[in-house]
Amino acid sequence: MENKEEIIADIEKLSSDGRGIAHIDGKVTFVGQTCPGDKCKIKILKENKSYNIAELVEIVEKSPHRVKPFCPMYNVCGACSLQHIDYNYQLELKKTIVEDSMRGLLDASIIDDVVPSPEIKEFRHKIQYPVRQTQVSKRILAGYFKPKSHDIVNIKYCPIQPHICDEIMEFIRENAPKYKIEGYNEKKHSGLLRHVVIRVSAKTGDNLVVLVLNADKVPERVKDFAQLLFDKFDKIVGVTANLNSQKTNLILTNKTIPLFGKDYIEETLCGVTFKIGSNTFFQINPKSAENIFRYVKDYIKSNYTKPTILDAYAGISAFGLVMSDVASEVTSVEECKASVDTAKEVKKLNGINNIKLYCMDCEEFLADKTDKSYDITILDPPRKGCTQKTLDSVLNLTKSEIIYVSCNPATLARDLKYLTDKNATVKSIRPFDMFCHSPHIEDVAIIKIN
Fold this sequence. Notes:
seven-stranded mixed beta sheet, 31% strand, 450 residues, alpha/beta, Rossmann fold, single chain, 3 domains
């Protein structure tokens, strides 16, 4: 087959990264922006030994699950790569992604249906917009990068985030140049405003605006602009500046300067109030996150009476803090000092007294606690999952069950295989849709220690 040849293909299923899969001459072929059930005209762009990469030329026959994307920027943005698929069918496809990841390891019957997001529009409560500027007109651009590039899609309206974010960003576009605040030039490492980050409380609708500056101190003109911004919007409770003069893709540094109002918003999960600052890790879909926390809490409450709980890879100790009232004691471990400091504030704010907070590398902490045991361990590692050393320690320290929360089915499957090889039993996996209209899926696995 020659490259660039246009052929007809039937899309059979969805890959874990959201591309459609067809078979051409027996070879797996990945095609973006397609849906299982589509008959398409495609063009092969790249041939490898075991797979092809193709682009969509034309939909010949539409899948019954194909819908019109509700975002006008869908074709250029790429952030919501499944928006052309009916939402209920997205959930079915995501369950299949989890099943495929676990194939040969677990019986599919223990994998529950995906719990849908309570909201499928305006669910994203954190935005991070890179900021640039046109060369001639000096117009400010802010939005997301086009797929696999650093070209800005200037987004005026994004239906997956609260509408006030669009209003705030438009105000910044129009007024920042009046204060001689230039957009960032990545190639030249020049220009002042690198990013705008907005945190929105699902509980109150309050907003924290973070101006990420290519600077080592806050210029007076930025302070003046921040006051204008703070005064303009009643629902902006704080404006901060984050100083990032490094040549890096890192968005936020640990240098955040409060400018006006508060340097945090408040969010509530299962009755616990959290302070969310500029750098605080917190789920971008709080209402879906609450479904996960409630599920874990209800499971523990229904099956245990005041257990001891280990909360590993704890972040701001959200799991440990939420579970504290159904536990006799919680031990929370997190290596990031800023997250542990936030957890201490939340602990005090909510009057929680039965949680111990440790600022340590999780693997080192667990290896040092050979004389300790816990009824339940909650694991919530990053996408790369756990090391085998960590899993060995958890097996030794946990008396009854592990509750493993994962945002990556592939690494979850790898770690579950390791645990089952060590004689643990996976009782159930429940997927939750945290990132609507994308192929990403959150899973909660309940694992019995035998």
